[in-house]
Write a structure and sequence with these properties.
Helix content: 25-40%
Number of strands: 7
Number of helices: 6
Bound molecules: adenosine monophosphate
Distance between the termini: 20 Å
Largest sheet: 4 strands, mixed
Shape: elongated
CATH topology: CBS-domain
């Protein structure tokens, strides 16, 4: 819950808002697209992080990227799903945050991205900051401020 006494919501470290790595669905760079599509479909997420076997963050894979990669001129080439690997089609330019970054930085990035990956100083994946978590906290803050106003 946001501390109204300090009032410094935007200055808070994002560390307390992230979903930790062990609760985040991911795929590995060497997985084929068939596996990635299975994970995306089963979890219901449109995009998830791509990690290597040491848990270093490499990018994001999404259903639109996979569909684009197997789109032929006249048909969807489903057979490619088995042969292409995540590393070939992932977005490796996704922005990242560190746990010590202020929430203000995360908020700005969340305007254009539904979630942002958090990494340590060596690039190891630590978790994600999602719009849902931030909006939930902001909603709680707005309600607290409203109640305070009515006192
Ligand atoms: P939300 O704000 O909860 O709707 O999450 C936004 C996006 O973050 C989702 O569409 C997913 O791409 C990603 N996401 C959220 N939670 C997880 C999770 N536990 N594992 C993997 N990706 C997630």
């Amino acid at each position: 819950m946001i501390d109204l006494q300090t009032g410094d919501f935007l200055g808070k470290d994002i560390g307390s808002f992230i979903i930790p790595s062990e609760r985040v669905a991911h795929v590995q760079i060497g997985n084929n697209l068939e596996h990635a599509l299975l994970v995306l479909t089963r979890t219901g997420y449109t995009a998830i992080p791509v990690l290597d076997p040491t848990y270093k963050f490499h990018g994001l894979i999404s259903s639109p990227l996979i569909l684009d990669a197997i789109m032929g001129l006249e048909r969807i080439e489903f057979e490619k799903l088995e042969h292409l690997v995540v590393e070939d089609v992932m977005n490796s330019n996704a922005p990242t945050l560190t746990m010590a970054d202020p929430l203000e930085k995360g908020l700005k990035l969340l305007i254009n991205h539904p979630f942002i990956c958090t990494v340590d100083e060596e690039g190891y994946f630590e978790g994600i900051l999602t719009r849902r978590v931030v909006l939930k906290q902001m909603n709680a803050l707005v309600h607290q401020l409203k109640l305070k106003e009515m006192d």
